[in-house]
Amino acid sequence: MNTWPEHAPLNPQDSAPEAEETASSENASNGAHFSATGSSIASDPDSLAAPAEQFDAPAQPIQDEPPPGLLFESFSQPEVHPPARIPNFGHLFLLGVLTLISLVIVALLTRSALHFHLFGISTVEKATTDIHYTLGSMAALYILTFAASMLVFPLFWHKSLFAGLQWRAATAFQLRRRLVSAAVVCFALALINGILMPGPQDTPIDKIFRAPGAAWLMFIFGITFAPFFEETVFRGFLLPALCTAYDWATERVSGQPARPPDENGHPNWSVPAMALGSLLTSIPFALLHAEQTGWAVGPLLLLMCVSLVLCWARLSTRSLAASVLVHACYNFLLFFIMLVSTGGFRHLDKM
After folding, report:
1. Cα separation of the two ends of the chain
2. By Cβ atoms counted within 10 A, which residue in 95, 252, 316, 338 is the most buried?
3. What percent helix, strand, coil does the chain show, rounded to 5?
4. Cis peptide before 87 (omega within 30 of 0)
5. Domain boundaries, the chain
6. CA 314/CA 322 separation, integer angstroms
7. CB 171, CB 317: distance < 8 Å
8. Residue 92, H or E segment
9. pTM for the model
């Protein structure tokens, strides 16, 4: 049964007498307390004003919803993205753009050199067989592309080019014996290939070697510039991009989450991705040198096998410097056997 006054919600004054009676009864039951304080609630009208107003105030609705500040809190939280996997095909495309720009610059420089008859060469036909123009233009292309990459890619990766490509020279140095052994295996494959599937004679590379001083220039170029820049392109950019693309496509098809990165933030590729990536990387690597060997099947198969070993060195050690070391040692062994067999490159007809 409701004990509140009938007109209390509309008329605050009607509820005051009952509030006073209630206060008086409470004063009587707790007489000892009020006698100690020397005061009475009924004798203090101001003390009744607060309860009366409290009774007359409309009931506040219960707030089941969160405050407006918390309502959109989830929308204000930063979205968490998985770490970027580098290098990927976008970075490979950017490298192609930088290479194309560098190629245009090298072509202009070559035209300028021909215009001034540098090294006594004035035509493009002669420049294609002159060691100064062939190696010079190639070295210029490598250097310009690499310099542009050193400036551009850190802007996207927020780390240096060497860090993004997993250079890790210390790892290569620690595993130098194993890596040199891999180069020896590649050299043994080259000897076997030369016996079972010899290449044609008088190939474009043979003609370049016969030029005065060309052999020594090729020797120096083959153990320094060529291994470094070729590995940067094929094992530094192309191979990781292929592995990343395979895993990314597999995740989209199967719905599986991305593999967590390693302790350095680099992607952990699956075994199928590394196997397929190594095979696809070896095809353009072999084709790059196919013209020099007259498009012979034997040298092409050898280059494919060597490229697979280089991919193994890169992936097993997570070090680009490791594949560069194997490549440089393999080239050194090839040039060294040529150096010995031709008497210090004096009898190139014996090659």
Report:
1. 118
2. 95
3. 70, 0, 30
4. yes
5. 89-350
6. 6
7. yes
8. helix 89-115
9. 0.75
